[in-house]
Amino acid sequence: MRDxxxxxKRLSTISKLILLGLWVILSExxxxxxxxxxxxxxxxxxxxxxxxxxxxxxxxxxxxxxLIGFLISLFLAVLTGILSSISKFxxxxxxxxxxFLGSVPTMAIIILALIWLNNEIVPMFVGFIMIFPIxxxxxxxxxxxxxxxxxxxxxxxxxxxxTLIKDIYIPSIFINLSMVFTSALSTNLKMVIAGEALSQxxxxxxxxxxxxxxxxxxxxxxxxxxxxxxxxxxxxYIMKAAIDFTKVDKWM
Amino acid sequence: MKYRVLNIxxxxxxxxxxxxxxxxxxxxxxxxxxxxxxxxxxxxxNIIAGILDPDSGDVVGFKDESISFVFQEDRLIPWKNVRDNxxxxxxxxxxxRDIERAIDDYLKSVNLQDYKYYYPSNLSGGMKQRISILxxxxxxxxxxxxxxxxxxxxxxxxxxxMEFFKKLKVMEKRTCxxxxxxxxxxxxxxxxxxxxxxxxxxxxxxxxxxxxxxxxKEDKAHIKNQIERELME
Lengths: 252, 233
Description:
The structure holds two protein chains of two kinds. By secondary structure, chain A is an all-alpha fold. Chain A has eleven helices and no strands. Chain A starts with a helix and ends in a 6-residue tail after the last helix. In chain B, strand 6 (143-147), helix 5 (155-171) and strand 7 form a beta-alpha-beta unit. In chain B, the strands form two sheets. Chain B has a six-stranded mixed beta sheet, with helices on both faces. The interface between A and B is medium-sized, with 17 and 24 residues.
């Protein structure tokens, strides 16, 4: 709640203008397009990128990879989160897997993925190793943190198991998930793009970032960053609209 | 006698709360448990409901019965509106049409029909407690346990809910156990009054409340005096 009360659109706009101003000043001072491109050359690159015939395919492919990866992570997180909440055996099986994902450097796993997997799969896998643990723990928290007093009520009133799952556990999982959904989606997108930069699939934002870097076209890199920021913003608006539409938080 | 607790003792670590308590609860009557704050009245009620296990002693007759419980706090499900909080405990026990009819009738009886689709977060503390009381009343139970149910209600709402409880007692036969520290409430609602001593609690006095049947004001004053004397000792 505090986050919402602290939010001020005017101050946020001022901050954005200051950043733009700093960009203009720094690019003037550095005066080197390869190290720090100007606002003008970045906008020019941006227009050129948008005009390329493959632009839509590139954006669509990256978004599709990100979406598929996210849905797989979500499905597996819900499945394993539920299983580990009801089975002590499964809970303990998941501990070393999560510890592995948490402590082994992400780059080491990505390198292995590059050796083992198809270059279309690697970006999704990179997103998965980053967001699966977050979603898994959120699902588990949703189940284990159900208010014990509500469970006592259910036991007393002999609420059927199916009603208990449908009306208590599932809403609790989704309420918890809805709180991390937007940040998990945006982290996943960033990781998928990083994976694309390494695995170089044909149509991909990450592959294009890598190409711009190879040609030392820093303005092109900046332009792609702007595109990624816009996509991220768009995704968060879509998520907000989806949450408003489903009214998942109407009771709050 | 169908329902009883026998030689119940319960301690929380070193602190002994209940000490060898035995009480009979007459079927279809309301028994009120009175006692000083913190004497273990709620603990006893939780043991009867099967939420807590006693250290020793037996709970007889309650295990296989359907029980509804009004807790001190409302315990409503925050993501369900008033209607769904009530229907939630009835699913599978009545058909859908009866559930809807019962919810409408019960809400009307405590003047909350306009709040049917409100979420708990939009209701006042007193309203939430009234819904929690309704949930216990509407559930087709043979035993109704109530732990200081009217504590958070203002005088008018308390009167409405108490009157509804009296009506309910006439309409439906239920064995009720009411825990309270309010002597007037006990005299107004119960057939039998049990007074517990301070910790470690045991039964200090059992009295039949003849006022509830004859409504004689002198009797009421006499019973009240007797209870207050007993509580002061």
